[in-house]
Amino acid sequence: MLKQFLKSLIITVLTLEARLMLARYKPKIVAVTGTVGKTSTKDALHGVLVGHFRVRKSEKSFNSHMGIPLTILGLPSAYGNPFLWARNILFGLGAIFFSNNYPDWLVMEVGAGEPGDIKRFGNLLHPDAVVVTRLSDVPVHVEFFKSPKEVIKEKSFLVQSLKDDGTLFLNSDDSEVMALRDSKRQCKLAIFGIEEPADFQASNLEITYEKNRYGATPAGITFKVNRHGNAVPISLRGALGRQHVYPALAALAFGESLGLNIVDMADSIARYTAPPGRMRIISGVKHTTIIDDSYNSSPVAVAEALRTLGEIKTDGGPDAKSQGKKIAVLGDMLELGKYSAKAHEKAGEEAAAAAGLLVTVGLRARDIAMGALDNGLDEKNIFQFEDATEAGKFVEEIMRERDIVLVKGSQGMRLEKIVEEIMAYPKDKEKLLVRQGPEWLKR
After folding, report:
1. 405 phi and psi, to 5 degrees?
2. Distance between CA 340 and CA 230 in Å, rounded?
């Protein structure tokens, strides 16, 4: 009880300081929301702004009651240390009056953990631009809302908080996102997408491969961005999936609204590195490839990850020494409430279509196994575990040369432990994997 009171007090004080900071320095703000893709989009927006403006972004996934004020104040998290929180409060007070070179732009990631969150964030930020990435039929955190529609309604409050002369950036491939246009009619609008007509539209999406002594392995993606009849080529290394196309499109649309050159921005995006745990390509043991998507999970994100896994070629070309297999390692999707069982069974159906072997981690993920079995995946190719460490050791044992291993699960499942177990160079884990800070490693 006392701990919760102190947490609420710290949030209240930091939010007040953040409000004073915004009032004093009046930065421009671009806010990103959605049920998937927020962090990647935030990072892509930051990438096109750097070099043109003074800019600060939300660190990691600072998108909550604590993270948003900390970003505005330019302070780190103190986790569970009350003395460091006291220091943060003092430093925040000092920053209000003595901050030098405060950013021209703040790139803010905005999430919703419970009803009322985004309305409060919107009232604090009053953004100059809002980007909505994608919404889903069964979004993460839905168990804290009456229904998925209530989650979408919560997201709409950020759109409503957009300044009247601001710009709204929407994903044309998501009808629920496009419907948010009705939440704010007195603003400019820019649309980005892949499948549906858009102002910034991607086409010719392909997976690129890198030749080595074992054949060819996935290296990244290429695509073209069509704008005003011109096609600008984009190349991204080190990550896979449409999940990284949408952030690039949003960043290009946002940058153009500020007068930035699209070709120059394309070069900036080519240097962009996907955040850890978001479809990152990592070298695995035994000359294998890991697709590390272990940051978090939701039904729509699992579907996209498995779609990408299914598209990867494992024959390696004429120089390949062996045919690789596709292994999907899927953990529990948390905070889905009454939608959990059905969502996990659907993920199993998708896994059966994309992978030759399925490894599940967690009690809820048993429904993934059931869904895969019901949709044709042989029982002998389905393996179930309750613990990430145990599952990681098993996966390492069954991996063979040229295999492709997708690892995805909710944050609480800690599937980065599996990636650490099977990655070729575990000494690089601190820069490649999620949740490598001391607070997480203690858990």
Report:
1. -120, 115
2. 44
Place of tokens 């069974």: 345
pTM above the 0.85 mark? yes
**For the chain, which ranges sit under pLDDT 50?**
none
List the domain boundaries for the chain. Answer: 2-270, 280-441
pLDDT at 149: 87
Residues whose CB is less than 8 angstroms from the CB of residue 6 and which lie 6 or more positions away in sequence, other chains included: 82
pLDDT in tens, 207-223: 999 998 878 899 999 99
Q: How far apart are the C-alpha atoms of 353 and 74, rounded to whole Å?
A: 45
d(CA 357, CA 349): 13
Please give the CATH topology (third level) of the domain spanning 2-270. Answer: UDP-N-acetylmuramoyl-L-alanine:D-glutamate ligase (3.40.1190)
Neighbours of 439 (CB within 10 A): 12
**Cα separations (Å) of 105 from 30, 36, 66, 250, 343?**
7, 23, 20, 16, 38
Residue with tokens 């660190």: 59
What would the pLDDT profile of 125-136 be if each residue is shown by its tens digit? 999 999 999 998
- Are the C-beta atoms of 191 and 254 separated by less than 8 Å? no
Q: Tell me if 292 sits within 8 A of 277, measured CB to CB.
A: yes
User: Residue 296: its pLDDT value, please?
Assistant: 94
Q: How far is 322 from 61, CA to CA, in rounded Å?
A: 40
Find, among 389, 338, 394, the residue nearest to 364 by Cα. 338
Write out the CATH class of domain 280-441. Answer: alpha beta
